[in-house]
Design goal:
335 residues, alpha/beta, Rossmann fold, 7-stranded parallel β-sheet, 5-stranded parallel β-sheet, 12 strands, D-3-phosphoglycerate dehydrogenase, NAD(P)-bd_dom_sf, D-isomer_2_OHA_DH_cat_dom, EC 1.1.1.95
């Protein structure tokens, strides 16, 4: 029996779809609502589901007994109830090595744009205020201090690019030792608050966990230089937006570049939209064409691999999955 994979409109890049259809039946759902996903999985006896931003909830996992695999088209798993997937014996995969170059480039772009206040300068020229050049002096990034929060693949790639601009790079990551960071030319920061007064730029690339939720709030902004800039390419809730707004309005910090927000898509009345020292983008730091193609190809290959009985290096719930899958098989009457 040929197994079936469910995709959701708008779906992954053609390179991934083509790979899937070569090996399996592919069904396309019109939207990612809970009801639609449950309906399509049960109607077509779906074995694998690939999602982008759609939520995979406990209700979906509890009501779709044929589901074996969930493929996340990207790195973050905030939209998937991994615990429920594990309890139901469903494997969860992601594509962790597809977009780190794109995200690192976006961070470098943000550093340069913030240092020159590029959006405001562009607006001034378009408004005929050419003499603004005598009122505002941009800063060089040469020899400035960059703190990278989260020294995974993105942080390591950003380090390489930052070194090309002669930035001094410091890293905060409880999971990497001082010696490991030194291999990448990074000085390890043990206590975040102690180093914040020395930072010119802070770039966030940490996952959202209980310990990282609102890791930047009023206390942290108070410690930062009033010329310092913060860049968030991780998750919106790494930053307390109310505290950030206060810090920006009161000029406690120099500015921010935000690719992610606490509410996505944001309310159009979000007060951050009115500030000239904020650069916003729609959570697409890793969404270059090249990264999308790599991600689509990677997740498609890994999903097909596990459906054929092979092991995937990108399985995120491997440690406790075995017993749950055994329970699921027994409940289904499968030996």
């Amino acid at each position: 029996m040929t197994k079936t994979i469910l995709l959701i409109e708008p779906t992954i890049r053609p390179i991934g779809v083509e790979y899937l259809t070569t090996n399996y039946n592919v069904v396309l759902a019109p939207n990612g609502s809970e009801e639609t996903i449950i309906e399509y999985i049960n109607k077509f006896n779906v074995h694998a589901l690939i999602v982008r931003t759609e939520k995979v909830t406990k209700r979906i996992l509890d009501n779709c007994p044929t589901l074996e695999v969930i493929g996340m088209h990207g790195v973050g798993l905030d939209n998937i109830d991994v615990a429920s997937a594990t309890e139901n014996g469903v494997m969860v995969l992601n594509a962790p090595f597809s977009n780190y170059t794109s995200v690192a480039e976006h961070s470098i772009m943000s550093i340069l744009a913030l240092s020159r206040n590029l959006p405001l300068i562009d607006k001034k020229v378009r408004n005929g205020e050419w003499n603004y050049r005598d009122m505002f002096y941009p800063m060089e990034i040469n020899a400035k201090n960059l703190l990278i929060v989260g020294m995974g693949k993105i942080g390591q790639e950003l380090t390489k690019k930052a070194k090309a601009f002669n930035l001094n790079v410091f890293g905060f990551d409880p999971f990497l030792s001082e010696s490991e960071m030194k291999l990448h030319g990074v000085l390890k920061v043990e206590k975040l608050e102690e180093y914040l007064p020395k930072c010119d730029f802070i770039s966030l690339h940490a996952p959202l966990t209980k310990s990282t939720y609102h890791m930047f709030s009023s206390k942290q902004f108070e410690l930062m230089r009033n010329t310092a800039f913060i860049i968030n390419l991780g998750r919106g809730s790494l930053i307390n937006e109310e505290a950030l707004l206060d810090a920006l309005v009161s000029k406690k910090i120099g500015g921010a570049a935000l690719d992610v927000l606490e509410e996505e898509p944001p309310n159009r009345d979000n007060p951050l939209f009115k500030l000239d020292n904020v650069i916003l983008s729609p959570h697409f730091g890793g969404d270059t064409l090249e990264a999308k193609d790599r991600c689509s190809e990677s997740i498609s290959k890994e999903v097909c691999k596990v459906l054929s009985g092979e092991i995937s290096k990108n399985l995120v719930n491997n440690q406790v999955l075995g017993n749950a899958r055994a329970r699921k098989s027994i409940l289904k009457g499968v030996k």
